[in-house]
Amino acid sequence: MNNFKAKVLESAQAAPGIFKIKFSAPALAAGAKPGRFLEVLCTGPNAPFLRRPFGIHDVEGGAVYFIFKKTGRGTELLSNLKPGDFIDVTAPLGNGFEIQKTKEHLLAAGGMGAAPLLLLARRIKESGQTCKIFLAARAGAEIICADEFKKYGEVFISAEDGAKGEKCMIDAPLERALKEAKNAALYACGSVGMLRCVAGLGAKYKVNTQVSLEEKMACGMGVCQGCPVEVKNKDTKYKMVCKDGPVFNAEDIVW
Amino acid sequence: MVEVNVGGLKLKNPVMSASGTFGYGKEFAGFYDLSLLGAVVCKTITLRQREGNKPPRVADFSGGMLNSIGLENKGAEYFIETALPFLAKYDTKVVASIAGGSAQEYGELAKILDKQKRVDAIEINLSCPNVAHGKSKGLFAQCCATSASIVAAARANTQKPVFAKLTAMVSDVVAVAKECKAAGAHALTLINTLPAMAVNLQTKKPMLGNVSGGMSGPAIKAVALKVVWDVYNNVDIPIIASGGISTAADALEFILCGATAAQIGSANFVNPFAARDAAAGIEEYFKTNNLKNIEDLRGKLKI
User: Which architecture does CATH list for A104-252?
Assistant: First the structure.
């Protein structure tokens, strides 16, 4: 991991309240593994003390993207970034997704959980394979990156409010795909409730299921023990989302 | 080099990491050479492994952060087998931080660590706000007699320098400091995090899984300065300052108020180079101002 100042190249509103930042980081971009994350310092008046963690969203040449929803003062300050500004980044952090040697790859995103899965879809495509992407959210307006994902595979959209795609939760389209799949792996990111549901389906259809978790963090590198997740392990009750994760095998988590 | 002697522990410079904010040094060794620090104060260990508190364990605001880790650690044996051999590579002092449920447990830990060559001193954590303090109603460091009995138990079991880490949440910190000195503490670490809370108005829930936690960061610096100044003026004992120190300037302010050394804590989470830069900055300040040793600045606050 490294700590560096990076130049913002682009800053845009991807959807109402959702912002996408592109910054220059050639070394990080070259080896970026999907599922790993950044800790970004928020600066400005009344900036929160701690850095904010964001999954690596995508790469393009020597540039890296992260995408976030404006939810508090930290993300508000980041949403004001302009091209030419500099951000203080510590990266790459965490472990990342392992692309399985399966015939099919099913990517399940709940809302902002789509963020780290775009780079995963890109990497799967780069390895000469395709994937199926399931984008779900409570409200259709919260579905992000559908067009980008279409470059990498078939996209299935579902929203509980029926404003976009199928009117249902993610389990319906995902279970249909799992029923048909002969040899698949599942990769998911989203809310705990959504991930619990995906983990249940993964267990039911006996497919390798990796989930990317979120927890409030301080250091981001395994120092402070601030971001525990309860695991099924006789030696330790908790593992740390920042260092042992953020990607875990779903079967190892106490849901 | 601004060498200092803290209660018998000689440091190449006055900068230490604060316990709990630096792990056992390994992660920061990826950023810089730990030999640039006066000492590494390790995360507090207990006799046996502790699971720690339920999440969320951290929260923040513009002036600092709160934590309710609950002293999660893998126990003394793991520390000796894993952390100490790693730190052997570096030319810096190693301070082990210990916590227990009774004076007897502190004594046992001191005895175990006394045998470890790589441990240069022991910091007694009497003031973690996130764990039960034996049968005490509050923190150990909120009771003079309990603090003294724990310091005495540690001293009875080790030849190494012993530091007592105290809390600011008392009516008279000078009284606690005096008792710790009388019980044999070689130095005092002032201060630990302040017991605190944060709540979420939208969800109507506490921000921490353990409801309350310990506050640290720049917001507590002013509190720590006052404690250091008061103890410096009333008790003849070396002081290691801790509390909102992020930069060389912060550390120098504490030295001006009487501290001999300074610990960098939460700042490590935000700027991984904070401790290294503070050590370099102090060196620079002494050179620029033609100061020869720590006594040229320590306690020289003009009143």
Answer: 3-Layer(aba) Sandwich (3.40)
